[in-house]
Design goal:
Helices cover 22% and strands 37% of the residues. The protein is built from seven helices and 16 strands. The chain is globular and about 55 Å long.
Length: 296
């Protein structure tokens, strides 16, 4: 399923990037992914919130950093919830922090900025008019979100308490986050999804997967726990080359991994993301160079 009109509680639903220079970021990403951008802020606003669209559907956004904020560019993951206030309370009960208390975003929704006990930041989104990404898994749109953590067991306890997530073990020791019943929601909108997944060799339970669970390696002591963002692309090699031409940096050159070929890229202001091409022929590859992905 590529087009969506809303999500279910506990599913990552939106991404945006906070940038010191939103206009410069807009030039980079529109050239890289073909995004059309429109400022959602009222005229005369001090900052910008540029909604990115593909094929007429919302895919992501580029935001100005608030005045006085450290000039650090990041990509941010939002998780759909029924109530931002209740989700924030669960975060505190589970040992996380609420960095910004729940607040209304014009008529778009209500949100809070939180961190898990390790400090990985995420946002919870209670939708009103804005119902998250409308286009997903097409080139230039959101493909996946991943938690990069040193405390896997602690993360399982925290995210299980806050969102009801469980861990799905895969061959080779890898794990993913799943939300029980999510596959039922997807199947309603995309009949036959389970059969197609099974036919392609996807592991049992994969239809319920909502995110990746990536343990940080011992040699990544300087990498803090964080959430990463992956965009689908037509060609990981071409995307990496184009990003470098536009002033970005290829942190990890394109490589083959199970199901995909991917690269880790930093935009010109330093926000990192993964560019991933779906390659079914790679499904049986070992988890080569896995730790490099976790730097994004």
């Amino acid at each position: 399923m590529l087009e969506r009109d809303g999500y279910v509680p506990g599913v990552p639903c939106w991404v945006d990037t906070s940038q010191p220079d939103a206009e410069a970021a807009a030039a980079f990403y529109s050239s890289l992914f073909g995004w059309d951008l429109e400022d959602a802020m009222p005229p005369g606003s001090a900052g910008k919130y540029l909604i990115a669209r593909l094929h007429g559907g919302d895919v992501a956004a580029i935001a100005s950093l608030p005045e006085g904020t450290p000039p650090m560019a990041t990509w941010n993951t939002y998780v759909w919830v029924e109530s931002a206030d209740e989700a924030a309370a669960k975060v505190l009960e589970a040992g996380g922090r609420v960095v910004m208390d729940p607040f209304d975003v014009i008529g778009a929704g209500r949100m809070a900025v939180c961190t898990d006990p390790e400090g990985a930041a995420f946002r919870v989104w209670q939708a009103k008019e804005h119902k998250g990404a409308q286009i997903v898994n097409r080139p230039g749109s959101l493909n996946f979100n991943g938690l990069n953590t040193r405390d896997v067991e602690g993360a399982k306890s925290f995210y299980g308490s806050v969102f009801g997530w469980e861990a799905l073990g895969l061959e080779g020791g890898a794990e993913m986050w799943l939300l029980p019943g999510y596959g039922d929601f997807l199947e309603q909108n995309d009949p036959g999804l389970r059969e197609r997944m099974a036919a392609s060799g996807a592991p049992a339970g994969f239809e319920d997967v909502v995110a990746a669970l990536n343990p940080l390696a011992d040699n990544q002591a300087d990498v803090p726990a964080h959430w990463s963002v992956t965009f689908a692309v037509e060609d990981a090699d071409a995307t990496a080359t184009r990003a470098a031409e536009l002033g970005g940096q290829v942190l990890v050159e394109p490589f083959d991994a199970p199901w995909v070929r991917m690269a880790v890229i930093a935009d010109p202001q330093g926000a990192t993301f993964i560019a991933s091409k779906f390659v079914p022929e790679n499904k049986d590859l070992g988890r080569q160079a896995d730790s490099t992905v976790r730097t994004a």
